[in-house]
Design a protein that fits this description.
Shape: globular
Low-confidence stretches: none
CATH architecture: 3-Layer(aba) Sandwich
Oligomer: single chain
Number of helices: 11
Number of domains: 1
Largest sheet: 2 strands, antiparallel
Order of helices and strands: HEEHEHHHEHHHHHH
Helix content: 25-40%
Number of strands: 4
Distance between the termini: 33 Å
CATH class: Alpha Beta
């Protein structure tokens, strides 16, 4: 199986074709943003799911139903993925919550024109940014709901309902608390050496320099 069988090359990036397609990327490019859209823009594995938990709770005044009844990929869908095309996002009332892993320079002309909001990393700051001023009781309630251990138990957020052929959580849960250097507690010396060898082979033509410990 070649890379062409697994990925779609889009603007210099390889997109897994399991959830992306030429049609989904065309939909993204033609998507019309509104000035009051709330867009969660993140690198993968950098707090996306956390933001998808916090933001709906803020916009509903802390109502737990907002995160307990709708999967996060539907409540804050990735615009570049196939799922977005079937959700009738054009008919959703404002403010819509949307997600993307794309960089700023990959955003559509519509996004750049209306300048949708970006998000901060705390409940109070995010609330203020969204012009939603929460009292201390609501902030505390949202924060408690979004404590990692609590969010991890939410089946609508932890991806445990995703079919095993897409994400086998018996091998690794989607939500796990990242700790710098924790790989040393997971991999044997031999496994680490094998990983390094494969990584060096796959990345040998990449000019960008990563700084590791």
């Amino acid at each position: 199986m070649t890379e062409a069988d697994l990925y779609i090359l889009y603007k210099g990036f390889y997109m897994p074709n399991l959830v992306h397609s030429p049609e989904s990327l065309k939909y993204y490019e033609e998507f019309s943003f509104r000035p009051d859209d709330v867009v969660i823009v993140t690198y993968p594995k950098s707090g996306t799911t956390w933001m998808q938990e916090i933001v709906p709770l803020i916009l509903t005044g802390g109502d737990p139903a907002s995160v307990e009844t709708v999967p996060n990929w539907d409540r804050a869908p990735w615009l570049e993925q196939d799922r977005a095309r079937v959700l009738n996002l054009e008919e959703r009332p404002s403010p819509r919550i949307l997600t993307t892993h794309f960089r700023y320079d990959m955003m559509t002309p519509s996004f750049l024109k209306v300048k949708p909001k970006n998000l901060k990393d705390s409940v109070t700051k995010i609330g203020h940014f969204l012009n939603t001023f929460l009292d201390s009781e609501v902030v505390e309630k949202i924060a408690e709901r979004c404590v990692f251990k609590n969010m991890k138990q939410n089946k609508m957020s932890n991806y445990s309902t995703v079919p095993c052929d897409i994400m086998d959580q018996e091998k690794s849960e989607f939500l796990r608390k990242g700790i710098t250097g924790d790989w040393k507690n997971k991999l044997t010396v031999a496994e680490a050496e094998t990983f390094d060898a494969v990584y060096n082979d796959k990345m040998k033509n990449v000019k960008f320099k990563f700084v590791w410990d």
